[in-house]
Specification:
67% helix; mainly alpha
């Protein structure tokens, strides 16, 4: 992706006006996607973690999802919703595949995980993760979507199926009650 201004493409007599217009359009698309990527990648990773993914799995799925989004960028009408749906489905497939991973191996550093060994430290600071992981899958899913900023209507629309906004609200209410119980129990133990 280029950071160059589309108007700054030098005039080359061997390149047709149509080709120059195509180059300018590609640069505009690239700049648009780059801005979307920067603003969305970390919240998308957090969204997947909130659904139960390990940090390194969430980062891989988010990156793969963003590559797919870039390939379809011109066709996406609601890119934020699209990447959340695609990433969520990829996580479900990952969980369903029950891949065996060696325990105790620290993943390689990446731009999303500069210090992979700090994952446990990060999780300890984010007190909500153990609570989310204690919820049933549907409640965890709607809470993750809610924490990502989606409304019950958005969630029902994006998840489709027989899930209505009312069902999303009901699952959210159950999840909030479970969260309150979780934190009350934790307070009592301390």
């Amino acid at each position: 992706m280029s950071n160059a201004n589309p108007a700054d493409i030098p005039e080359n007599p061997a390149v047709t006006a149509e080709e120059r217009a195509g180059q300018r359009l590609r640069q505009v698309v690239d700049q648009s996607f780059a801005a979307f990527y920067r603003s969305t990648i970390r919240p998308l990773v957090a969204f997947l973690i909130n659904q139960g993914a390990a940090v390194e799995v969430a980062a891989d799925i988010a990156q793969d999802t963003m590559m797919a989004a870039y390939q379809r960028w011109s066709d996406l009408h609601s890119p934020r919703g699209w990447v959340h749906i695609v990433a969520s489905r990829a996580l479900v497939r990952k969980i369903a595949s029950v891949e065996e991973h060696p325990v105790g191996e620290i993943p390689e550093p990446t731009s999303l995980l500069a210090r992979p060994d700090a994952i446990k430290e990060w999780e300890a600071r984010h007190d909500v993760l153990p609570m989310l992981r204690s919820l049933p899958p549907r409640q965890q899913q709607v809470m993750a979507w809610t924490l990502a900023g989606f409304t019950p209507t958005d969630i029902a629309e994006h998840l489709g199926g027989n899930l209505t906004p009312e069902a999303v609200r009901a699952n959210l209410a159950k999840a909030r009650r479970a969260a309150a119980t979780y934190y009350e129990t934790r307070q009592e133990k301390q």
